[in-house]
Amino acid sequence: MSTIAPFARPLYVMAKPAGPTCNLACEYCYYLEKKNLYKDNQTSGMFEMSDEILEMYIRQYIESQTMPQVLFTWHGGEALMRPLSFYKKVVRLQKQYGRGRTIDNSIQTNGTLLNDEWCQFFKENNWLVGVSIDGPQRFHDRYRHNVKGRPSFAKVMQGIELLNKYRVEWNALAVVNDFNADYPLEFYNFFKSIDCRYIQFTPIVERIMPHTDGRTLACPADNDSLPLAPFSVTPKQWGNFLCTIFDEWVRNDVGRYYIQLFDSTLANWLGEQPGVCTMARTCGHAGVMEYNGDVYVCDHFVFPEYKLGNIRTHTLTEMMYSSIEQDFGDAKMTSLPRQCRECDFLFACNGECPKNRFCHTADGEPGLNYLCEGYHRFFRHCAPAMEFMKNELLARRAPANVMYAVRHNLL
Question: Of 104, 253, 337, 383, which is most buried, counting CB atoms within 10 Å of its CB?
Fold first, then answer.
């Protein structure tokens, strides 16, 4: 396998130790469908990472890092479908191969399986926990339920209470869909009411394409004209959602509540690296490894067309620095249509996630992001405040000063 210059850019690979296995059956989940990719090589009735793959991954991942601090991320499906003993083994192997380096861990969970033992482990080992929760109960339970259709909100909140009890650091990952997008302030105020200080809003956009292997959600390589899944947020909803919450945040909450998309937008205004890959100039530095060691270019591209190889036969360094991965990452910018390249806000969104680029421009050119209208409205709306915060930071003053400027109509 050909490679570019080793270690030319950071390498990040998220691991899925339980593959697509989950105790919930959220209607919009694209992870659950991955069971169909692996039904032929599933042997035990469970999608479980072997001890061999785990040790290989931890050793290679640590060896591939160029910085003294190493971040591991564990995802799913539902990552807590693996027992606590699995993650205790993770910590032991990290110490064994870390050779004194600083090792950090984050894990994403739906929160319903959290108990005292889990929370005590996370606290003792300083793990960051991401909790998937889609706002207050009537929003969350719309799509997030178990296989029997029963709601999950109450159990998620019990899990959050346990995290708070043990003082575990956690943040929220909230999916914005066709329903909750219409209630931005109710949505945002809920997170404030539970004192969630770090929030990631993720717009759900999926298309329908039945495949012969049983999958129903489209691959990014599928035809542009496929119908949208009914739970997808519309561009207009997304723009209104962001603008409405931003107005509340910029008036009252800067420096108190941290919203990943707003922070990343400010980073792009400053010319710095944003904290979310969808808004970065290029892709290709953040791969994902399935339970059996298969590595893909990105978490949103776990399809046969985007497989880089397997950790049993190729090292993480070979796969993540391969020409395939490099070309995939560079294509985020080189494949943009002219409308994007000439847009005043290209620097702010960089075309967003390539997964969502299935629309056509006014001139009929393919490759326009489905959410473009919403993002363009948001960037135009927040531009005065972003400029103000940018100038405050450059002058080594607090960006939170923007709240005074907004309240006194100085922008």
Answer: 337
Around Cβ 364, how many Cβ atoms within 10 Å? 7
Find residue 201's DSSP bridge partners: 174
Residues linked to residue 71 through DSSP beta bridges, in sequence order: 104
Q: What is the pTM of this model?
A: 0.94
Cα–Cα nearest to 169, from 258, 266, 289: 258
Phi, psi torsion values for 283, nearest 5 degrees: -105, -165
Q: Would you please indicate which residues are annotated as catalytic (active-site) residues?
A: 299
β-bridge mates for residue 288, sequence order: 14, 296
pLDDT in tens, the chain (411 residues): 333 344 456 789 999 999 999 999 999 998 888 888 887 665 555 799 999 999 999 999 999 998 889 999 999 999 999 999 999 999 999 999 998 899 999 999 999 999 999 999 999 999 999 999 999 999 999 999 999 999 999 999 999 999 999 999 999 999 999 999 999 999 999 999 999 999 999 999 999 988 777 778 999 888 878 999 999 999 999 999 999 999 999 999 999 999 999 999 999 999 999 999 999 999 888 999 999 999 999 999 999 999 999 999 999 999 999 999 999 999 999 999 999 999 999 999 999 999 999 999 999 999 999 999 999 999 999 999 999 999 999 999 999 999 999 999 999
Tell me the backbone φ, ψ of residue 2, rounded to 5 degrees: -75, 150
